[in-house]
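This section describes the prediction task in plain terms. A model, or a person checking by hand, is given the sequence of a single protein chain and must write out its three-dimensional structure as a string of tokens. No templates, partner chains or ligands are provided. The sample shown here is typical of the held-out split.
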Amino acid sequence: MTSPTHRSQVTRIGLISDTHNLVRPEALQYLAGCDAIIHAGDICNQAVLDALARIAPLTAVRGNNDIGEAVASLPTHVKLTVQQVTILVVHDIADVGDDPRREGIDVVVTGHSHKPAISERDGVLFVNPGSAGPRRFKLPISAGMLIIEGSHASATFESLVA
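The expected answer:
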């Protein structure tokens, strides 16, 4: 008798940040089909949250520009666990503690800089999806994807407009 093949479930989490009141159709298309969405701050109005929440369950944190009534009450930090991966979401990487690994964090999602970046430090995956909002300087308009399978996490980001 053979044992059934066990396949881990894959969870796709769309990552978006620094939308600054702008919901781009390209961002909505990129995030379509995600299992969940994380917004890493600088949302600026409720309409952005509403549009994203229509796609998938949404987790959002407050950024330094989130001062309006609808977004000012968002938390500055959120910790969530997906499968066996613990994710910390904060707007500014400066607000991450000295040793996220010691705090049980596997992935840190940030925004603020508008610069998309993926790096690993001391076993912690750091992901900044960049900005999906108005173009700033010559930085790309981008969003990201966090792929979780069991205790493994990987990330990508994609330019949304040329």
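For orientation: Helices lie at 25-31, 46-53, 69-72.
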